[in-house]
Structures are given as structure tokens and as C-alpha cells.
Model the fold of this input.
Amino acid sequence: MTPAPAPRVPRTEPEAPRDLVGVGIGPFNLSLAALAHPLTELDAVFYDQRPAFDWHPGLLLDDATIQVPFLADLVTLADPASPWSFLSYLKSRDRLFPFYFAERFHIRRAEYDAYCRWVSQSVPGLRFGHQVDAVRWNPERDVFEVDFTQLDADGEAEALGRTYSRNVVLGIGSEPYVPDPLRPLVDASGVPVVHAADYLAHRDALLAAGHVTVVGAGQSGAEIFLDLLRGRPAGRERLHWLGRTEAFAPMEYSKLGLEHFTPDYARYFHALAEPVRDGLVAAQWQLHKGIDAGTIAAVHDELYGRTLHGGWPDAVLTPGVRVRTAGRIATTRIELHLEHLQQGTRSRLTTDAVVLATGYRERPLGRILAGLDPYLRRDSRERPRVDDEFRLVLDPSVTGSVYVQNAGPHSHGVGTPDLGLAAWRSASILNSLTGKEPYPLPDRTAFTTFGLEQGRPRIPSAQHPKALTPLADGI
Done:
């Protein structure tokens, strides 16, 4: 007889409420944890269901770099003297001089991941292998109840637990997005259709496939197309790269253009009317969804090099195309039904494998926040409203705050998912949370003045009507 499964033993957590519970440990909540660490009076804990930190492991290609300077680490733009800076990481590895001579302003993606792993293994209060199941408001105790499941090494439920907190911060990140026409192919077993997030795990099989199609004209699509191109023989590349945008366009990277990723622009954007904000997000795609100019140049150089002895490489690059539907031919081939958006023409493409470089979408908050639904205030599109201090707008009866990291660009603009704003947002949250200003932040960060009217003076957190009672001195 099969033995009954062992009961899940409740995990004991402190009865006294914590000051802060974090849900998710990606770069943004890791930044918050690192900046919270010196605030000794702040009792904070962060949960993540993964067994350890990892950051887009399927896209850690050898030459891929992050698209922000190394100064945009977890802490430097709020606290350059922090022990958790990227330069501190290099010093701990005796790599400061090699980095100095390498003269790298944009570091490799794999190095950023290694740096974050170093921080995650050093900062206390991080609990991996803990899946948060629900967040509720307890009006009798004036605290949030956070239910979680502790997972074993195989990801199976091991114990249940609950902790209490005066405040919560959500940093659950995004998840790979698969367009509806291709979803059945991804879900079907044995069909070679993979999202870019899993590219490295399938790279060898994709290099061996007869014909490969890459869908998506952003940075990851360009990097994957270039990697496949370099790995396949000249004249027999058999690659097709499709994109919905009207061109394989470079990302806006001018110095004044980059000022859209400053706190000044985030504050300006938040103050705009909701319909204006929604229109801007769609129109500003090239600020954050284009391709690094160096990657575009590398693709062209690789293609050009293959014309050296005459002829053209067997590679097709077609922008302005959407995939209408898709299906299987026999068991191993795929047929994509395409539509050209400018010509209004349609065609079919048969391929042996598809890589979906179709980006990411915010993970839905509904499951975690179901217990808070009666208290949530929503906008006209039923999205949770977020105030200028990154807090969900809740019913006034809720005395605690729920902060959000990277909860979508609809509230704070295109810089919301940008790593360069991580430290500033984390510092802003801690200033608001403590009712003090442990991290003084600049009032001005851009030469551009966004809008005709000057923004209203920033109200110190301690004067904010929803500010918490300041924590004890010594922070």
C-alpha cells in the first residue's frame, strides 16, 4: 500500500508584525533588501519560490550586455558607499584592476547575474524556496497576513506558514509572453517552439534544426538571430527573422532621449491623465523595445561577411509582419500564417523550429491580492491604481501600505522596468516606509523640463497623509 504523504507542518513565524514583507526576489526587491540592510531598526523579510536567485538564465549569451551602465546596479544611484555595489562585488573578487583596464561601461549580462547572486547570498532576510500564496488585511490587528508555502529542493510543498506585517512590497516581476496564435504549439509536447527565455537550454537542438524562424524584433530577437547565424554554415544558414514593427529599429539612446528614464520623467508621467499615459506607452516603444545599435551592426557585419565570395546568405529578415495563426505539418514541422501589415498581403512559412522573442508581460497580481480586492481602488481599465510613492491605492481603513515594483508602465512610464531606476525606487519606498529620509534623493535629475508647469514641491514622507509612524532613531 502506498504510504500517505507526510503532513505539511506549519512553519512558526513571529507573532509580532514585521515592518515589511517582500514578495519576490528579483533585481528590484533585491535592491530594496540591500538598501534596507543598514536600517537596523527595520524588520524586513523577502520570500521567493525559486531555490536561488537567477536572472533570465536562458538569455545569458556570451557577448550579451545589459543596456544600462554598470552604475545602474542595485544600490549606487541611491548610496554610492553601499557595501552591495557592483564595484564592491568586484573588489570582493579581486577584479577591480582587470575591470579598470577592460574599460567596460556596459557589463555582460552574465556578470550582472553573478553580481546579483553575490548580493543574494550575503544580504540577510532573503528566504528562497518560499511561495507566497495570499496577502490579506486583518482589520482587527491592523496588519497584513501573508500566507506562504515552504518548498523542498524539488519544489514540492513541505510546510505552510503565515507571517504578519505592517507593510508589503510586491516584486513578482514578469513572465514570458506567448502570442495566442502560437500558444497551442508551445503547449504541445515534442514541437520545437520555444520562448527566448529558454533559448540556451534548446540552443544545440535549434542549431541542428533544418530551418529556424525567430519571431520578435527586439533586443532578444536580434541577439538570438545573431547567435544562430554565427553558429550555422555559410550559404546554409536557413534562418528567417520576423518582426511586427515596421523596421528592425535601433533603440533610442541619445543622451536627452535617455532622460525619459529619470525620476523627473517618472513624476511627470504619473501626474498625466490616464488616457494620455496609455497613449504614450504605446507610442514610446522605441525607447525600450528597440535594438542596441551595436547588435544591429554585428548582425549586418555577419551577413556582409558571408557575401565575401559571392552570393547572399540564406537568411531572410522581414519586418512589418504578424503571425495570424500557426499549425503543425505532420509531427515535426510548423506552418506560420503571416500577414504583412503595410501591404495587406498574406502568405505561409514552413519551418522546423520557432524561437519566440516576444517579450514579457507583468505577472498578474490577482491570485496574491484576491484577499485585498475589497480594499483596492482601480482605474478605468480595472488596473490597480498606484500613487506617486509606488503604493497601491487602498481604502482609507487600511493603515498599512502595499508597495509595488515594476507593476507596469501605465502608472510611472517606460522607465518602470528599467534597471537604472531600481535604486531610486527602492530608496523612495524606504523613505516613505520609515517616515524619514535615510536616503536623500535629488529634486532634479534631468536637463529636460517635462511639461509647461513646474511640478509641485515634493512632500517629505513624514508629512504625507498616509506616512507611517517613524521608526526608532538609529536608522
About this structure: The chain is about 25% helix and 20% strand. Confidence is low (pLDDT under 50) at residues 1-7, 459-475. The first strand starts at residue 20 and ends at 23. Residues 437 and 460 are 8 Å apart (CA to CA).
